[in-house]
Amino acid sequence: METAVENYANPKACFFHVLFKASALAFYVLSTLFFDSYVIIFVMTVLLAALDFWVVKNVTGRILVGLRWWNEINDLGESVWKFESLDQQSLARLNKKDSWLFWWTLYLTAALWTLFGVFALVRFEADYCLVVGVCLTLSIANIVGFTRCHKDAKKQFQQFATQTIASRLTSSVQSAFSVV
Questions:
Q1: Which of 59, 57, 60, 61 is nearest to 70 (CA)?
Q2: Which of 79, 114, 117, 145 is the most exposed place for a label (fewest CB within 10 A)?
Q3: What digits encode the pLDDT tens for the residues 115-138?
Q4: Distance (Å, rounded) from C-alpha 25 to C-alpha 164?
Q5: TM segments (predicted)?
Q6: Three-class secondary structure of residue 68 per DSSP
Q7: Is residue 167 predicted with pLDDT exceeding 60?
């Protein structure tokens, strides 16, 4: 009998993808039980969320969904998004469970940070709204980056398919007229 872990192509990447998200969330929730210092809670929670951001953006995004993004400032001072993705054949071979885990945890984490933000607002804890705001911003940045990257990969595939069909059609027409 197979276990759920055996169904994942990259169980270690999946584990660390979830671990970093869960550690930031768990520390935020449980920290008030162990620490009286807001500064420690702020620094550790944001540090864990930043580690999650980096791991997702640079490691698990590549391994689990074959995507990578970054943002650069060009010479004119404008923000330019850059995207990398595997070719369509490689993307098609990616494990569906790995992909499902990646996308669902990405969105679930942002939803949980939003919920924690609402709780902090209701309890009038502006300082904790700041912690949640930083963590939510990092989560949303990854969502926006990977969503744009995924759309860009689809667009590139469609352009490639259109160009391939057009070039084959053109070569077929040329060969038909060259015979005559």
A1: 57
A2: 79
A3: 999 999 998 888 899 999 999 999
A4: 47
A5: 12-31, 37-56, 100-122, 128-147
A6: strand
A7: no
> What does the alpha-carbon distance between residue 166 and residue 147 come to, in Å, rounded to a whole number?
29
Tokens of 34: 């162990």
- Name residue, tokens 């939803």: 111
The domain spans of the chain are 11-175
Rounded to an integer, what distance in angstroms lies between the CA atom of residue 62 and that of residue 55? 10
Residue with tokens 């071979």: 93
Q: Tell me how far apart the alpha carbons of residues 18 and 61 are, in angstroms, rounded to a whole number.
A: 12
Torsion angle of the four alpha carbons 16, 139, 68, 56, in this order, in degrees rounded to the nearest 10: -10
DSSP state of 124: T
Encoding tokens for residue 102?
A: 């990646």
Distances (CA, A) of 65 to 16, 135, 151, 172: 15, 22, 13, 37
Cβ-in-10-Å burial (0-12, 13-18, 19+) of 130 comes to: middle
Tokens of 135: 């963590």
* Residue 84, helix vs strand vs coil: strand
The share of the chain scoring above pLDDT 90, in percent, equals 39
Q: Quick one: which of 168, 150, 149, 172 has its CA closest to 160?
A: 168
